[in-house]
Design a protein that fits this description.
The complex is a heterodimer of chains A (113) and B (151). Chain A has 113 residues and is α+β, with helices and mostly antiparallel strands. Chain A has helices spanning 7-11, 14-25, 30-35, 41-53, 75-112; strands at 28-29, 57-62, 65-70. Chain A has 2 domains: 7-70, Arc Repressor Mutant, subunit A (Orthogonal Bundle), CATH 1.10.10.10; 75-112. Chain A has a 3-stranded antiparallel beta sheet with strand order 1-3-2. Chain A is rod-shaped and about 85 Å long. Chain B has helices at 23-31, 33-39, 121-132, 135-150; strands at 12-19, 46-52, 59-65, 71-82, 86-91, 97-106, 109-118. Classes of the chains: A alpha+beta (113), B alpha+beta (151).
Chain lengths: 113, 151
């Protein structure tokens, strides 16, 4: 059975995020990526493999080189969920607002009596 | 990429709201357990606050009771408490984050800034991902928000 891969898993690792940043502007081959990091080429290959499984990277053969190209459409899914998480906190402030209005009304009514 | 480590943009959340109440009242509802129980969300939840020791190093224990009977324990430790101005607390149960809440007096209104900095981007992503699993909860929140507006 294959582990389910998704975009969250792809970006949950700092090295993978750094790889995405690196190839976001232009495709790099795996060796060029590996040179920028202090970890082994095998480890980089594994990260690239996971990014491919998650659909964030595709490999394009150019002559003898294999270039990693970023596919960033999927990341918008993450930002959409971050927005929803923000909404969750905003709703807390909505409730606070309603509660404050209620308290103000109660206290104002008391003062008038 | 040199900035990747110092940057916090991938693990923070910032919201603010201008509240139509004087800073004394906003501070009061933020710092008294009996008030907090009335607005701490999400909607549809009730809250039990067992400890709220508002001083640096003081503990804050809050249990949210979900609509389905599930309890969510939240343990925090206050780091900074400046009356009518600022509260900093560390949420020490998962997900770990540090929240900074500031109160800015603007006449009869108060600008509330709420900043949450998660320990790691991994933790933040995990939270967002967990929240993703919670669509039903989100719908409940929306329904209740509508209901409260009509009241």
């Amino acid at each position: 059975m294959k582990a389910r891969r998704d975009v969250y898993q792809a970006i949950a690792d700092p090295t993978r995020r750094a790889i995405i940043n690196m190839i976001a502007t232009e495709p790099h081959n795996v060796n060029a990526i590996a040179e920028k990091f202090d970890i082994s080429r095998q480890a980089i290959s594994l990260h690239v493999k996971i990014l491919m499984d998650c659909g964030l990277v595709i490999i394009k053969q150019r002559g003898r080189d294999r270039f990693c190209e970023a596919q960033l459409d999927q990341l918008s899914e993450v930002s959409a969920w971050i927005d929803q998480y923000r909404q969750h906190w905003e709703s807390k402030l909505d409730t606070l607002e309603t509660y404050l209005a209620k308290l103000k009304k109660e206290r104002y009514a008391k003062r008038k009596k | 990429m040199q900035n990747a480590k110092s940057s916090t943009h991938d693990r923070e959340l910032h919201i603010s709201r201008l509240l139509d109440a004087p800073v004394e009242l906003v501070w009061e509802v933020w710092t008294h357990p009996e008030h907090i129980a009335n607005w701490w969300g999400p909607n549809g939840f009730t809250n039990t606050i067992t400890t709220m020791d508002m001083k640096p190093g003081g503990e804050w224990n809050l249990v949210m009771h979900g609509p389905d009977g599930t309890d969510y324990k939240n343990k925090s430790v206050f780091r900074e408490v400046t009356p009518f101005k600022k509260i900093v607390y560390e949420h020490v149960s998962a997900p770990k984050f540090t929240a900074t809440v500031t109160f800015e007096e603007q006449g009869e209104q108060t600008l509330l800034n709420w900043h949450m900095l998660f320990e790691t981007a991994e933790e933040f992503i995990q939270v967002v991902k967990t929240f993703k699993a919670d669509e039903g909860l989100k719908q409940n929140i929306e329904k209740l928000a509508l209901y409260l507006k009509r009241k």
